């Protein structure tokens, strides 16, 4: 059976009905668009509907969470479906707000195919945007049809008696296979040989990008295990190379701005590939920005066919690839190519993990690592968008039962709940102020419970210093403990800055004292960060931005901006507008 492509109609989501039917680009001119005027056709538009984009991200995030909550409550076969608190012996310290279960939801049929179609839609839209800016010159030469699944046979149902499915004839053969004979037919039988260029990006990933993802994973799965999976899986390999090339391009772009003051958007991946004087894309453009885009589209081409294998949809490889794709979009957050793609792809990674029952306490180490890496990205995206985090999973282990590394990831979870609290103004605008105060107090108590139970490895290494800076260097070891302390203060600041108060002047002074203590700790830890520590610098940027919003003294503001600038340089963090936004907050 031939499955119709879900990507075939992706080019027709906007514009007048006539252009959508003809499958041509529409400028949406009214009362008559340019295309209809040129061809003397009747120009008609669809009637307005309820697809307004205002605050869509906020409510889509809430809906996804509630869908998963409803599914979990119906299944009843998972500890996380019934566990309602961070500490099972202290339900009064729950970090849940108690408001979510009252929201109406609709159950959606979500699968890896929907995730891929989301990726293909965004990729095709980006190609079209590049083409639209070509002004008649030869355009970006990439066949959009290769991203479509329309030539792919549908996978056979995987019921209890079924052990075979169709191969796509472009991959292996048209014959049926037995899963017992070929457990992973979508992998190569031998390690993939890398070209010198690919090897350069591959090593960059293992040395720079992998450690960023592995900050809270002492098993270093993204640095040590995922690259070896990629050497047998071309899709994951292309995704790794895309992420490495994208991050490398951020460093080159930053240096270029320093060298010649050129506009930061000139060489971003959101612009068409560099062209010759004739306007034609260079045939052998080897720049990291160009190669990142090429690798990314090759990843999507691989997915368009390999998702047909039911075993692939449940594999380590698809989990790792999903995180690589969302990381790629995170690194591309300054580019206009995203248009919310990172948000959408984070949701896609959420769906993939839900389909595999993946969470932060999965027995499998890589699955845990993927979940925590995804949650870290979702925390920042949700914080910047003012929406709740997507996760609905709740930890089963008690604080007292966690080892030092598990305590670090527990703080990531609590931080996600604090960011969710900050979004309550949008998700629950009618919530009683007393409920919000109580909810904030529960979160602050959860933070203090965590801080109180920390072992000695979470204490800073002390040293004498003669520095005259406002923020003395504070060094923690190991790095994941330092990162957890930064997220602790990030979360605390988020709650304090968003919790209403009726306590008067004394309560205000106490709150400012707490924020000032967090400010000095966050900036002190950041000051201890060195050039070769991009993983810590990533966390430092986020913590500095959150805590820095409460700074009032001009001297501290100036020093904080200097520290933030250095962290941005070390991490290559895609932070368009962060500095300007901080300055704007200080002026209010």
Short description:
The protein is an all-alpha fold.
Please provide a written account of the structure.
This protein has 588 residues and is mainly alpha-helical. It contains 20 helices and no strands. Among the domains are: 112-148 and 184-274 and 285-371, no CATH class; 404-587, no CATH class. The longest helix is centred in the middle third of the chain and has 27 residues, at 234-260. The model is unreliable at 1-12, 48-58, 69-92, 98-109, 150-181 and 262-283 (pLDDT under 50).
Regions with little confidence, pLDDT below 50 for 5+ residues: 1-12, 48-58, 69-92, 98-109, 150-181, 262-283
Q: Count of helices? A: 20
Distance N to C terminus: 62 Å
How is the biggest beta sheet arranged?
Answer: none
Shape: globular
Domain Zn(2)-C6 fungal-type: 15-45
Protein name: Zn(2)-C6 fungal-type domain-containing protein
Keywords: Nucleus
GO biological process, one term: positive regulation of transcription by RNA polymerase II
